[in-house]
Amino acid sequence: MQQGFRKIRSVHTTDIHMRDPFVYACKKENKYYLFGTTFADGCGDQEPMFEVYIGENLKEWKGPYVAFQPPQGFWGIRHYWAPEVFEINNNYYMFATFKGGIGEHRGTGILVANHPGGTL
Q: Looking at the 3D structure of the chain, how many domains does it have?
C-alpha cells in the first residue's frame, strides 16, 4: 500500500472525516477497506486523489493509504467523489465520479486494480 502526503496512523471510525463512505468487505483477506470522498479537489499543492483505510473490524482502521492517484494526463482533474469498489474475476473495480476541466461535464470512471486497496 502506498503512503500519500498524510501520515499513516491507527484511527477510530469517529476520527475519520470523509463524505460518501463505502466499505468493501474483503473475504479473501478477512479485512475491510473504507473508501470515500476526502480530497475531491486536492489539498494545497496536492492533486485530487482517493484514499483508503484498512481494518479488521468496523471501528479501528489504519491509514490513509493512496487508493488512486491520477497519472499524468488523466481526464478527471477535480471533483473526485463517491468511490465504490467491487471484485469481478479476481480484479477490483472502482467506480467513481470525476470532473474534467472548466466547462466539462462530470462522469463516472471505472478504474481497475489487482488489489482491493489499489494497484500494488
A: 1
